[in-house]
């Protein structure tokens, strides 16, 4: 029996501002319903989720305002709309939990990254997020600077200093 190889995933798009602008309370992996040209465009690595969010529409959870550009090698009749809402594939229990948190706690659901898992399936990592105030952003920036300085000092300790 063959042993499975190492689990690898290929990152397509990341929302770097999300961890700066929000406190991420919980994360969830969700599938995403895509058209063929959207998958091909994602495989080329050209997508943006910086201004996108997830919300309830038509009894389902949708990724809104994400940008997946048109696939240039497809004909003009087989193209997709770049900013269309895309259905997220989650279990009903998980969706109800997220929707309840949105209504009760005033949180938002932000996509943190889009990637292909080891089986080649496009996935979205969602974060249940609470907004940061300006003071919180300054504190997190100060903490990040301190961690960087601390690492720099620790690297310097290992060398002989004359």
From TrEMBL:
InterPro entries: SmpB (IPR023620), SsrA-bd_prot (IPR000037), SsrA-bd_prot_CS (IPR020081). GO terms for molecular function: DNA binding; RNA binding. Its main location: cytoplasm. Residues 133-162 are annotated as: Disordered. Keywords: Cytoplasm, DNA-binding, RNA-binding. GO terms for biological process: trans-translation; trans-translation-dependent protein tagging. This is SsrA-binding protein. The gene is smpB.
């Amino acid at each position: 029996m063959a042993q499975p190889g190492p689990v690898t995933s290929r990152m397509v798009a990341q929302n770097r501002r999300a961890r700066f602008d929000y406190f991420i309370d919980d994360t969830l992996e969700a599938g995403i319903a895509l058209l063929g040209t959207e998958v091909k465009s994602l495989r080329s690595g050209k997508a943006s989720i910086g201004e996108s969010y997830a919300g309830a529409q038509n009894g389902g959870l949708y990724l809104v305002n994400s940008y997946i550009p048109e696939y240039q090698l497809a004909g003009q009749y087989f193209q997709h709309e770049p900013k269309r809402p895309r259905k997220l594939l989650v279990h009903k229990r998980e969706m109800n939990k997220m929707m309840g948190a949105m209504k009760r706690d005033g949180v938002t659901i932000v996509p943190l990254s889009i990637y292909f898992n080891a089986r080649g399936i496009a996935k979205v990592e969602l974060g249940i997020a609470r907004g940061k105030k300006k003071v919180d952003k300054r504190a997190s920036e100060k903490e990040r600077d301190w961690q960087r300085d601390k690492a720099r000092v620790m690297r310097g300790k290992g060398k002989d200093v004359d």
